[in-house]
Design goal:
Elements (H helix, E strand, L loop, with lengths): L1 H9 L11 H36 L6 H28 L12 H7 L1
Helix pairs in contact: 2-3
Protein backbone atom coordinates (compact mmCIF):
# COMPACT_ATOMS: atom_id res chain seq x y z
CA UNK A 1 0.00 0.00 0.00
CA UNK A 2 2.92 2.36 0.67
CA UNK A 3 3.98 2.06 -2.97
CA UNK A 4 0.52 3.13 -4.13
CA UNK A 5 0.48 6.08 -1.74
CA UNK A 6 3.97 7.11 -2.87
CA UNK A 7 2.91 6.96 -6.53
CA UNK A 8 -0.20 9.02 -5.82
CA UNK A 9 1.94 11.64 -4.09
CA UNK A 10 4.48 11.75 -6.95
CA UNK A 11 1.74 12.11 -9.56
CA UNK A 12 -0.06 14.77 -7.53
CA UNK A 13 -3.27 12.75 -7.34
CA UNK A 14 -5.58 14.26 -4.76
CA UNK A 15 -8.77 12.28 -5.36
CA UNK A 16 -9.35 8.60 -5.94
CA UNK A 17 -11.93 7.08 -8.23
CA UNK A 18 -15.04 5.70 -6.65
CA UNK A 19 -17.47 3.24 -8.29
CA UNK A 20 -19.74 6.21 -9.10
CA UNK A 21 -17.11 8.16 -11.08
CA UNK A 22 -17.51 8.14 -14.88
CA UNK A 23 -13.82 7.29 -15.35
CA UNK A 24 -14.21 4.28 -13.07
CA UNK A 25 -17.25 3.10 -15.04
CA UNK A 26 -15.40 3.50 -18.36
CA UNK A 27 -12.38 1.59 -17.08
CA UNK A 28 -14.60 -1.19 -15.71
CA UNK A 29 -16.45 -1.49 -19.02
CA UNK A 30 -13.14 -1.59 -20.90
CA UNK A 31 -11.78 -4.35 -18.66
CA UNK A 32 -14.97 -6.42 -18.95
CA UNK A 33 -14.86 -6.04 -22.74
CA UNK A 34 -11.22 -7.16 -22.88
CA UNK A 35 -11.98 -10.16 -20.69
CA UNK A 36 -14.88 -11.12 -22.94
CA UNK A 37 -12.67 -10.81 -26.05
CA UNK A 38 -10.12 -13.19 -24.49
CA UNK A 39 -12.86 -15.71 -23.74
CA UNK A 40 -14.15 -15.50 -27.33
CA UNK A 41 -10.63 -15.96 -28.72
CA UNK A 42 -10.11 -19.02 -26.49
CA UNK A 43 -13.40 -20.51 -27.69
CA UNK A 44 -12.50 -19.85 -31.33
CA UNK A 45 -9.10 -21.49 -30.86
CA UNK A 46 -10.66 -24.61 -29.37
CA UNK A 47 -13.17 -24.87 -32.22
CA UNK A 48 -10.36 -24.58 -34.78
CA UNK A 49 -8.40 -27.31 -32.96
CA UNK A 50 -11.46 -29.53 -33.13
CA UNK A 51 -11.75 -28.87 -36.86
CA UNK A 52 -8.15 -29.95 -37.40
CA UNK A 53 -8.62 -33.10 -35.32
CA UNK A 54 -11.76 -34.00 -37.28
CA UNK A 55 -9.90 -33.43 -40.55
CA UNK A 56 -7.06 -35.71 -39.37
CA UNK A 57 -9.53 -38.42 -38.43
CA UNK A 58 -10.91 -38.48 -41.97
CA UNK A 59 -7.55 -38.77 -43.74
CA UNK A 60 -7.01 -41.89 -45.79
CA UNK A 61 -4.24 -44.11 -44.48
CA UNK A 62 -4.72 -43.18 -40.85
CA UNK A 63 -3.97 -46.26 -38.77
CA UNK A 64 -6.15 -47.68 -36.03
CA UNK A 65 -3.99 -46.45 -33.15
CA UNK A 66 -3.79 -42.97 -34.63
CA UNK A 67 -7.59 -42.92 -35.04
CA UNK A 68 -7.94 -43.86 -31.35
CA UNK A 69 -5.60 -41.06 -30.30
CA UNK A 70 -7.45 -38.57 -32.50
CA UNK A 71 -10.76 -39.73 -31.04
CA UNK A 72 -9.42 -39.16 -27.52
CA UNK A 73 -8.19 -35.69 -28.53
CA UNK A 74 -11.61 -34.83 -29.96
CA UNK A 75 -13.22 -35.89 -26.68
CA UNK A 76 -10.82 -33.71 -24.68
CA UNK A 77 -11.43 -30.77 -26.99
CA UNK A 78 -15.18 -31.23 -26.56
CA UNK A 79 -14.81 -30.94 -22.79
CA UNK A 80 -12.62 -27.86 -23.16
CA UNK A 81 -15.14 -26.30 -25.57
CA UNK A 82 -17.94 -26.92 -23.06
CA UNK A 83 -15.94 -25.20 -20.31
CA UNK A 84 -15.03 -22.23 -22.52
CA UNK A 85 -18.63 -21.97 -23.69
CA UNK A 86 -19.84 -21.91 -20.08
CA UNK A 87 -17.43 -19.05 -19.37
CA UNK A 88 -18.61 -17.24 -22.54
CA UNK A 89 -22.26 -17.62 -21.51
CA UNK A 90 -21.51 -16.12 -18.09
CA UNK A 91 -20.01 -13.00 -19.66
CA UNK A 92 -22.25 -12.60 -22.73
CA UNK A 93 -25.25 -10.99 -20.98
CA UNK A 94 -22.96 -8.51 -19.20
CA UNK A 95 -21.70 -7.00 -22.47
CA UNK A 96 -23.00 -3.77 -23.97
CA UNK A 97 -25.06 -4.64 -26.00
CA UNK A 98 -25.69 -8.09 -24.51
CA UNK A 99 -24.46 -10.99 -26.64
CA UNK A 100 -26.44 -14.12 -27.41
CA UNK A 101 -26.19 -17.17 -25.18
CA UNK A 102 -24.76 -20.09 -27.18
CA UNK A 103 -25.52 -23.77 -26.81
CA UNK A 104 -22.93 -26.50 -27.18
CA UNK A 105 -24.96 -28.10 -29.99
CA UNK A 106 -24.89 -24.82 -31.94
CA UNK A 107 -21.14 -24.43 -31.59
CA UNK A 108 -20.44 -28.04 -32.55
CA UNK A 109 -22.77 -27.75 -35.55
CA UNK A 110 -20.44 -25.05 -36.95
CA UNK A 111 -17.70 -27.65 -36.94
Amino acid sequence: MNVALDLERRLNLTTRWTPHDPEYQEALEYLNNQWFIRVVQRLEGLVVQRLFELAKANLAGTGYKMCQQISNAITRHSIAIRNALEHYNQLAPLQSPPRDILKFSEVVSYV
